[in-house]
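Hey,
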Amino acid sequence: MNKKYEDAVKQLEQIVHQMEAGELDIDQLSEQLKKAQQLIKLCREKLSKTEKEIEDILDKTE
């Protein structure tokens, strides 16, 4: 999954909105929860990678 962080967050927000509004039946809910889990993992990985890159840059400037 090669997706931008912002796009993943927007998709997560849409899923949460659909859940809160009761727009999903049980089959859709299961599918969307799996998708949300993948998106959360993607976001965490991107945040960790960015944090590491920033630390590396800061270490080089000291």
